[in-house]
Amino acid sequence: MNMMHEIVKEWLEQEKIDLFIGYKVVDGHPLPCFFTRENIDDVDNLVESKARYPLEKIAAKVYSTHPEMKIGILARDCNQRALNVLYVWNQLDPEKIETVGINCCPSPAREHADCSYLEREPSGPLKTLIGIENNLKPEQAEVYSQEERFKRWSYEFEKCIKCYGCRNICPVCFCKECSLEHSDLIKKGELPVEIPIFHLVRAVHMAGRCIDCGLCEDACPANIPLRLLYREVNQITARLFDYRAGTDSGQSPFSILGENVTLEPMSL
Amino acid sequence: MTNSMKEFEDSGCIFVIGSNTTETHPIIAGRIMTAKEKGAKLIVADPRNIHLAEFADIVVHHRLGSDVALLNGMMHVIVKNGWHDDKHIEERTEGFSDLEEVLEDYTPKKVEAITGVGCVDIERMAEMYAGNHPAALLYAMGITQHTTGVDNVKSCCNLAMLCGNVGVRSGGVNPLRGQSNVQGACDMGGLPNVFPGYQPVADQTANEKFSNAWGKALPERAGLTLTDMVKGMGDGRIKALCVFGENPKLSDPDSGHLDHVLKKLDFLLVQDLYMTETAADADVFFAGASVAEEDGTYTNTERRCMRGNKAIDPLGKALPDWDIICRLSSAMGYAMDYSCPEEIFDEMTSLTPSYGGMTYERLGINGLQWPCPGKDHPGTPYLHKDNFSRGKGKFHAVKYLDPDEMPDEDYPFFLTTGRMFSHYHTGTMTRVSPHLHSEQKSGYIEVSPKDAGDMMLNDGENVRVLSRRGQIEVPVKITSRVGEGLLFSPFHFRENPINRLTNPAFDPIAKIPEFKVCAVKLEKIAE
Amino acid sequence: MSFLQALLDFMGLGGRLHLEWISSAEARKFVQVVTEFTAKIKVLGPNPIKGWQGPEIPDSLPSIFEGRALGV
Fold this sequence. Notes:
The structure holds three protein chains of three kinds. Chain A is of the alpha/beta class. Chain A contains nine helices and five strands, in the order αβββαβαβαααααα. Chain A folds into two domains: 3-101, no CATH class; 116-241, no CATH class. In chain A, strands 1, 2, 3, 4 and 5 form a five-stranded mixed sheet that branches. In chain A, a hairpin with a 2-residue loop joins strand 1 (19-26) and strand 2 (29-36). Residues 258-263 of chain A have low confidence and may be disordered. Chain B is α/β, with parallel strands linked by helices. Chain B has a six-stranded mixed sheet with strand order 17-19-18-23-16-20. Chain B has a five-stranded parallel sheet with strand order 3-2-1-5-6, with helices on both faces. Chain C is mostly helical. Chain C has a domain at 2-45. In chain C, 43% of the residues lie in helices and 0% in strands. Chain C contains three helices and no strands. Chain C has helices at residues 2-10, 27-44, 48-51. Chain C starts with a helix and ends in a 21-residue tail after the last helix. Classes of the chains: A alpha/beta, B alpha/beta, C mainly alpha. Chains in contact: A-B, A-C, B-C.
């Protein structure tokens, strides 16, 4: 039993939390798991895991049906930033959340993180020639002319198979009705998805929310450089509104509902 | 599949024929795109201008049902130019001279006349496929659902063996299987002529082995295929039918005739997740459990057997499929008292050499690819590395035959059927999902802009489609995905049951119906 | 609006979006804005979204695979 196990058990026993969301190895693969007071010995199976899931999204689902429940979460830096966004958008109550932190994102003091994104294979020659390489920085994608940018991004969007994986994994996507599924906004029933509207709409909705966890790109079966796109979205937001989602407290500049409006918790 | 999905990323050339991969096997399509980005060549041959074609080096739209001619044409060019793999042919195969003789006839010019694919394109395809080793060939129902389905598959194998692409990593002949466990169902003897692991019922040793294990003398004669059963119901030889997890009233060809013969049955039993069109006609309906409600294994298209664990107990009165079958069998006088799926799995592996080395514990989360004959065997990512199961690979000299029904004056259009990305088969599961249903809410028929213009049809307008078997009404979708004279419609929608029109003619060996080709006419509905 | 303009610019659709508040009394301003924007769009050329016909796959590409030399 390690430190983490002791803390979680203590919290559960002292009723500081009712539920802890972490990882457990099942058949050799770490999966998200609920740890409870009733089954407290199971906490010994709690692991940090290299696999990443949006645990806070699971917490928000629990909160939407059990708002009284106190939830503990295993939180990397990205989970913590996502939690902050969910607090800002009233999808979770910070009073009800306790976190066990694990530091992981790269920083000046720590060049490499544990997340799978950094182990990405280098791009193939076709992608270099007509697409957008996933590991570019936003500035590097701006060396191309306007015409070429459009062609390169359209090539990437053309690969989309409309699985909605980017949205479904996204820790800060919580709307009850999703614009991506609105037939007046985006044409339905066909592949490729409508270019570039589908990805543009999602990018716009990431403004003031995206916490740069990279889960969307990890989940994308077509390897579209989504993280790069949303990083640019974050840079524009920081430049225009001096707002950084996940680290700055206060309402997002894109929250047209204002400070006092509570979004209804989403249903399961 | 002879090879594994991951391997496609390292192929030199990928040849996709008769598969709308991005819509029906999107994850495999992702592998193809990665290969393309890494420098692989991509050839797409499909009568429709599918999404994957956007990424291809060569795209050809061959006429429906002309696959054998197209493949023979490619092989003709390869042999003429000496691009074939002599060493592989010499060491690993037999029957090459017979093939060579047949190929002689399939000059690019002749093939162009049959397929509508230009001579230059045929030559380029041949050069690209032969010149970028290892080349993987991928196909789906566009190859198999024909009266010449078996011939089409043999031609694919011929091409792969000709260029030394069988028994190598990232090459092979790869039928993309549809259902999550259709490979597993076939492996388990879900076919009329074999026991689990493709051991023939007519083989005395195999028959004795299974008869002893199951304590009952088993028939040595092959059973009936689905196509034969329809005939049997029609002439009264079959009086009762059990349907497990299938909805033939929407998915079988010439469904008007099927409706008719189903009514002749004395007894119809249906087991399904939902009350399907077929289940509505049943005398007895068993509610089966869903994927989230039962334990067991799935064997996917790359022969990988994986465990599925239930998340919740079955809701309501539903039972796991294995439990229903055990209870039914016991009630009918043959006691099956398995306590869990693992017990059934262990019995199966003890009788099935290709699964012999598998246990639930060994499967873990990643599963194992058969053949896996021993407890220490790591499984097999690609087949036929050193030997074919029959020893040498046999070339089959295959000649081109027309589809059973070709367009004529009365029925001037080709109709082909298939799937679209948001729905699955008869929509039993996908049309009850609000997200998937909202993607496409009704059936449609794809019509080329030229044909729509000629008939003064507007996008979304209802049109009457007639074949020799029946007629339906369906909204028009004007799109350049189809060429002039060709129509396409998905079969997911009960309001527009396209299989009322399809041709029940079938392949003489595999008995698979010709879903992919029939002749129809269009009629504008008077306002 | 500035946000969307910047994002469109990043994706290669820069300069094609403009917002201006014009009162019904400001006819002259309306004419000026529309004329200027029309001239700007004419310089930019036709809308690339309509012109998008799918990626242009290049004929030759450095392959990381070793092709088998064809005995032509």
